[in-house]
Write a structure and sequence with these properties.
Layout (H helix, E strand, L loop, with lengths): L4 E2 L9 E5 L1 H4 L5 E7 L4 E5 L3 E9 L2 E5 L2 E6 L13 E4 L4 E6 L3 E9 L8 E3 L5 E5 L6 E7 L9 E7 L4 E2 L4 E2 L12 E9 L4 E7 L6 E7 L3 E4 L6 E3 L4 E9 L8 E2 L11
Antiparallel strand pairs: 1-20, 2-3, 3-10, 4-9, 5-8, 5-10, 6-7, 6-9, 8-11, 12-13, 13-14, 14-22, 15-21, 16-23, 17-20, 17-22, 18-19, 18-21
Amino acid sequence: MSRLLLRNHTPDESGRVHHVTPDSAGWACVGFDLYQLETGQSVSGHSADRETCLVLVAGKASVMAGDQDWAEIGDRMSPFEDKRPYAVYVPQGAAWRVRATSALELAVCSAPGLNGGIPVRLIRPDDVAASVRGQGSNTRHVFDILPDSQPADSLLVVEVITPPGNWSSYPPHKHDQDDGGAETQLEETYYHRIDPPQGFAFQRVYTDDRSLDEAMAVENGDLVLVPRGYHPVGAAHGYTGYYLNVMAGPRRAWHFNTAPEHRWLLKPT
């Protein structure tokens, strides 16, 4: 199995399914945890030097972060309900706690907190910009949870829904070197969900020189690491794909470079 593919599995006693740190991934910035919590179960955290974005992928919860407290948030029981998510931004140095008030799928996204001074904030569905990218079988639906236009030190967080049979993160693009406004260096994780859950998608991660070239069959709940290179995703016919992206790097901006041999696909038809 690819070292970039982390398979879904039964949660541990704390409810955690996936646990990625910079050390475990072999990179510098992105951390990611995925929890499947039962009603009444709680999880908490605190970091002196890392910021966090708590994303309610599905379910409802009461959330405490810093000196803020929200009794119950969450408006969808599945990421496939065509509803934008709730999330909470937590700066470095602030503690947080999440208590599930229903079955809860919680993503804990983290990256270095560089400057501090950004307050805790609730990101409501109305705060999340929705857009459609691509056309035809390259159409996908995007929810920008924490884009570079909103305050944070390092984190970029986005959800994408890929209709059955469509491609996403396509034409293949990369963001693995710092080249001003042309490209930024960003590590990335893909947390995948599939609807219906017995389906699958494919993801390829590869570089121009093919020193990295891995193709993976991705199933419901799997996680893919993208340390560098291009990383397109294809959803199988009959199955809708969802992924939650977490990105971070030395500079907080999303500039990408499309593979030269595939740029013809960007021309208007």
